[in-house]
Each structure stands twice: as structure tokens, then as C-alpha cells.
Specification:
By secondary structure, this protein is α/β, with parallel strands linked by helices. It is about 35% helix and about 25% strand. Bound molecules: 5'-O-(acetylsulfamoyl)adenosine (7RM). 5'-O-(acetylsulfamoyl)adenosine binds next to α12, β24 and β25.
Length: about 650
Amino acid sequence: MSESQQDGQDLGNRRYEPPEEFAKNANVNDPSVYDKANQDYEAFWAERARELHWFKEWDQTLKWDPPNVEWFVGGKTNVSYNCLDYQVEQGKGDKTALLWEGDEPGDTRTFTYSELLTEVQKFANVLKGLGVRKGDPVSIYLPMIPEVAIAMLACARIGAPHSVVFSAFSPGSLRDRVNDCEAKVLVTANQAPRGGRVSKLKENADKALKDTPSVENVIVVRRLDEDAPMTEGRDRWWDDVMGEADAGCPAEEVDSEDILYILYSSGSTGKPKGIVHTTGGYLTHVKATTKWVLDLKDDDVYWCTADVGWVTGHSYLVYGPLANGGTTVMFEGVPSYPENDRWWDIIERHKVNILYTAPTAIRAFMKSGTEALEKHDLSSLRLLGSVGEPINPRAWVWYHENVGGGRCPIVDTWWQTETGAILISPLPGITTTKPGSATFPLPGIFAAIYDEEGNEVEGEGQGNLVITRPWPGMLRTLYKDPERYEQTYFSRYGKEVYFVGDGARRDAEGYYTITGRVDDVMNVSGHRLSTMEIESALVSHPAVAEAAVIGRHDEDKGQVPFAYVILEGNREKTDDLMKELRNHVGEKIGPIAKPQQVIAVDELPKTRSGKIMRRVLRGIAEGKEDLGDTSTLADPSVVDTLQEQAAAQG
Ligand code: 7RM
């Protein structure tokens, strides 16, 4: 066994106890919470729900008519009220709710809870003035600026479901999402600065608006003092309508099961799925997990780096922290602008205590070394979070040592757009963590592993991850498509069991490790192999910064593993190294997993949320000319570069 292998294995086998001081002060530090929730999970969630403000209490905690679920049935509440009015009532009016940092360093705006409440009420009145009523979807196509949170909360205030569309999505993606929910109003901005470059957002919106017959009005935020093409009678500037708006708009008393938002999530094929989240259960789950997992406290400055266009931005940048009366940081820019120490500069200047980010970002930092970090005082940090994809042990340990200074627990949080909030994760004051493992289902969450036939895998083992009982934050349906909802999530193992679509492994101590999407499973000569497993074998080699593996069609074996790697900065792309990497995988997993070919590339085709688009890699590996729709890639031009590099090494 080589040194690097031992290293990789050691890392995954390490254990990290919650530091004593941390555990003592943690929001949750009594392990009996697991037993209590196990005994009566409805009562457990009802207790969490009581931490919200309700206009009227519910009559029934849970109504489970598989696959349809309702939580806190008959209860009346309002998300905007909970995030704002309720906080002000508790004396937090002058506390900073939102701390915004713009693309240029030091360009900041802050909103206290009272100020945010005023803006939200005004915008709620603007929407009402445009004829938006309870139940009418509103599309929001805004970058990371305070107005996006204001618009979301204003929708919630009047019971209008919002549909936030990621601002870097193309006009075509925006058009499809607006048309699917038939929004009457679109909220957008003239421009969106990011990384020193400016995108003309309104021009994109206008391209989409050529073909969105439902839209009657467009509100345009003036980000940067520039003009934009405005269509008379349809488009109005945000500042103009806000200037005329009344500052009083009481929150609508909505039903617990009224829709809070629709968030489109691209499935592996065709039409995006409109994931529907409702009010009472969602906020209960999001509020509780922000407090329990992210350990948010009153005096914390909390930074979730996700874009509001993704579910993490909805649940853990906006709703979770505000429902807990916290201070949430929103950053408009990118890690590399103006210098590659921007994040560390933000943490130092704003004294950030909790950082919640994605492994892809951590690996990028890892690749460029620790110099940028060392320039800054990161001692304010006390907890680190990870979300979005499996975090390999080496990145985990790097994050722990270099960002967390060895003192901060890491919560590796597993969840999905569909689950609304975190389901599997450590509780940082209780759980002993192992790098690479999301550890255990949270209290009140019932996960299991099933084999192909639907038998439960007991104890140590591997298979398909499922959730066997409903949870408050779960999606309620796919917008206007209940059949697809049932088909996608509740047909694989029947109507009562939620099929996650991820594989998982459980060790002898019950720790869960997510092994990746089961749709990325390949079958090599009848052997099941996870692409992610091969990827983690590759990234455990010190020469590899990042890896993506696909199953390439093969006449003989059905499929063969084919790997793309990004090398660590100082490594050269030699044939010997490629051979060494193939052997490394062979030794780590077994000869069957050895990639037929390893290609070194400069970049991988990623969506804007950092997920690798394997479909494109498969096409390139199979020499296809037509790679399908690549418009949702963060940078569609990587495709050409990849094709060149593949041809050169093929
Ligand atoms: C929150 C989010 C969901 C998919 C999910 C997994 C993967 C997310 C983790 C993870 C391993 C994690 N929503 N995933 N978190 N895999 N460990 N901690 O990302 O809908 O965009 O994606 O992401 O495959 O099914 S999402």
C-alpha cells in the first residue's frame, strides 16, 4: 500500500469529538433527544413547531395519506411574520438581520429587523397593487442583493408563492420556469455585477419575456446606476414603486399547507421539476435545523455562501437564520475577486462565526494553497458546514485544519431540494464525526437502506437510501404534476417510502456515508460501481485535486469507468502519472473499478450550483458530436476545451 493510500484511509477513519467548550454551549447537547424523537416523532416535531408563531394552532400534527402529506393541519401562520414581526416583538428590532456585502470589497448594506420589516411591507403592497393575490405565483430573477430577500419575504407575507430563478440562468431557462407557474409578475434587476464583470440581467429577462404571455408587470431593481430597456406599461423601477408604497401591510394568516414557494430543479432529463414547499412544516424544519445543526445563536454572524437561486439559499440564507432572529450574511461576489483572499477578508471584517459552504469551493481553495488564508484572522469562526455533494476526507480535514484552525466542528449536512431542510447530519455538540460521513439521521428523521428488491439492509451495508416516515420540510408535490411526484419519489418502493435517488453506505457503528446519485451508478460486467466511489479513490491521491467519473458504453463489459481529473497545481500531465492513477483506483476499490482511461483536464463541466454534468462527460468520452443542452453550465465554453483535451490524449 502506498503512503498516499494509507493517508487517505487514515483520514476517513479519524474521529473528531465535539470540543468540550463547544458542546457545553451548543444549542443541543443532550443525546437523549434522539430517543425522545424516536419514541414519538410527531410529538417531537410538534414541540419544534411550537417555537414558531401561530395565529391559530393546528388541529392535527400529521396527516399521512401516502404519498400525500400534511403537517400541522388547520394551523394558521405566516413565514414573513415569523421572520420579521415576531422577531421585532421579541426585542430584536434594532438587531442586524441582513448584512450584505457587494461585489466590491467594503460595499456593504445592513438592514435591522425593523428596517427589513418596513421594506418587506412596502414591497408586499407593491405586489398587491399589481393585482397579486394569495396563491398567485411571482417569479424572481434577481442576483445576490438584499432585494431578493425582500421580494421573497413580501411574497410570503401575502401568501403568493415565489419562484426564484437563479440569476445566471439563461433566458430560455427563465422563460420555461415563468411559463410553468404562469407568473403575472417578474422581479428582476437592470444589472448584476459579479467578480468585477457586469451582466445585463434585464436584457436577459427581456429575451425570456418575449415568450411569457402570463407576465403583466415587471419590477426592475436599479443595481448600478445605469439604464435598462424598459417596456412602457409593463416595466417599472423598484425605487419608483417603493417610493409610492404604503409601509403598512399586515401579514396574511395563511394555512399551514398553503404554498410558500416553488423551486425548479432540473431533473436528469428534459423538463425541470417544480418542487413545491408549503408553510408550517417547512418553516418548522428549517428553523429547528438552523438552530440544532448550524447551532445559530443570538450573537452569531452567520454566513451561508449559497446563492438564493438554490434551495440552500432559500432555507439557510434567508428563512432559517431569520426565523431564529439571527444575522445572516449575503455576498454578491466571487471568492477570487478582487483577490483570492476575498472570503477570508469577509470573515475577518465581519467576524463571521459560522460558515456554511460547498465541498467544490473547499477543493478549489485547497488547490490554490493556504497563503490567502494565512493573511487573515479567522479566529471568529466556531462552526463549519458542508452541503451539496459528498466531501472527501482530504477536503474535510483540510477545511477543518486550515479554515477552522483545528477548533471548529464540521457538520456535513445531507439533504435535497425535495427534502426542504437537512435530514442527515451531525449535531455539532453531540456527534463524534468521521471525515466523509454525514453521520446519522437527525432526531425525528427515519432513514434506511434498501436493496434492489426492497428489503431493508440491516447493520453494516450499502444500497439505496430511503426515508421511511414523512418529515415536516418534505416537498408536497411537483407543481401541477402530482403524477410525476408519485412516479419519481414514491413508486420505486411503494407509496409509503420516499426514494431518495442517492446511494448510501452504513458502517458498523451506524454512520452513513452518501455514495452519490444512484442514477450515476454504472454496471461493469455485472458489477455495480458508483461513479462517486471511484472519484473519491482518485481524489485520495495527492496529485488529484478533483475528479469526475462516468460509465462509458462498452461492447463487452456494458460500461467501463472513464475518468477526468484536474491535477494539483504543480503536477504535470504525464502518461506515467495517468497510469499510476489507474492503478491507484485498482488498488483502492478493486481491478474492476480501474478506469479504462484517465484524462487530465483543466476544468470540469459544472452547473452553476457546482454539480458536475456527467451527461456531457459521457458524450465526450463516447466521441459524440451532439452533447445535448449545455446552456445550464456555469461556463458552456469548457466543453470545447474538454473536447480538445480529450482528443489530444485519446
Ligand atoms: C442541498 C442540495 C441534492 C443532492 C443529493 C446528493 C447531493 C447534497 C450532500 C450530498 C453527499 C452531502 N440540494 N448532496 N448534500 N451528497 N453529502 N452532504 O444540495 O437538490 O441541489 O442536491 O446533492 O446527491 O441528492 S440539491
